[in-house]
Amino acid sequence: MRIAKLADIHVHFSDEGPREGPALVFSNSLGTDFRLWDDLVPLLPANLRLIRYDTRGHGLTDAPEGAYFMGDLVADAARLLDHLGVRECVFVGLSIGGMIAQGLAAERLDLVRAVVLSNTAPKIGTPEIWRERIEMVKKGGIEALADTILARWFSRRFHEARAEELTGWRHMLTRTPRAGYIGCSAAIGETDLYESTARLRLPALAIAGNEDGSTPPDLVRETAGLIPGARFHLIRGAGHIPCVESPREYADVLMRFLEEIGHV
After folding, report:
1. Do the Cβ atoms of 90 and 115 come closer than 8 Å?
2. Enclosing H/E stretch for 77
3. What is the pLDDT of residues 57-89, one digit of tens each?
4. Which of 29, 177, 197, 224 could form a disulfide with 95 if both were Cys (CB 3.0 to 4.6 A apart)?
5. Assessment of whether the complete model's pTM goes beyond 0.70
């Protein structure tokens, strides 16, 4: 277990592979932790430096009370990479992790040479939707939203064929610290990155699942369209977290992108 003290919080992370290897950094979605990437990591080449971390309020990272801001989450990522001496990584972010990727690329190009924006957008939902979600969690806990969230996370086929595994994902979701879930929900609700993302000029890959109920494919495709030259890939038969449902396809498209930009 590796923990870094970064400004006001302790961040849980893993750092695998050769220190001198090309760095990939993975940022998880709301309601998950860095185990989100467990099925993907073994499919990637051994020469890569693979860094994963639990977002503020998730997993074993501290979960302070109160609203978080996207600037907090971007600063956490930047501080971790500075702490680890990482420069010019490819930053892979899913959902809120993809928002962090966009913000980090806009603020710290010394840290990021390319981004993978998975199942994300510069703006997700509306402030009103996120305020309603926060109130529901305050009243009934994350369990009150679990069925709705899991229906968006995974395809119908996953629900039917992998019910036991689904139970594990439900536990991960509902055991997320309430303060962390609420704090990150507040951060998403106040974030609109359209202008800064449209100014990005770096290699980018956008990945979507065709059964994603949180960030539908057209929204992800629109995000790719903001960045000149960005690639877009649709994973069929997958919901909001295709790295879990289709890890082999996810790894293949990621590796093609890394090869195209010379990050292997």
Report:
1. yes
2. helix 70-84
3. 999 999 999 889 999 999 999 999 999 999 999
4. 29
5. yes
Report residue 119 as tokens. 């199942």
Cβ-in-10-Å burial (0-12, 13-18, 19+) of 239 comes to: buried
Q: In terms of DSSP bridges, do strands 204-209 and 231-235 run parallel, antiparallel, or are they unpaired? A: parallel
- pLDDT digit string, tens, across residues 139-165: 999 999 999 999 999 999 999 999 999
Question: What Rg value do the Cα atoms of the chain yield, rounded?
Answer: 17
- Which of helix, strand or coil describes residue 213? coil
Structure tokens at 53: 């971390």
Residue 103 carries which side chain, given as an amino acid letter? G
Burial of 79 by CB count in 10 Å (0-12 exposed, 13-18 middle, 19+ buried)?
middle
Strands 23-27 and 89-94 come out as parallel
171, amino acid identity: H
26 CB neighbour count, 10 Å cutoff = 25
The CA-atom distances, in angstroms, between 107 and each of 13, 100, 196 are 22, 11, 9
Give the start-end residues of each E strand in 56-168: 89-94, 112-118
Q: In the chain, what are the domain boundaries?
A: 2-260
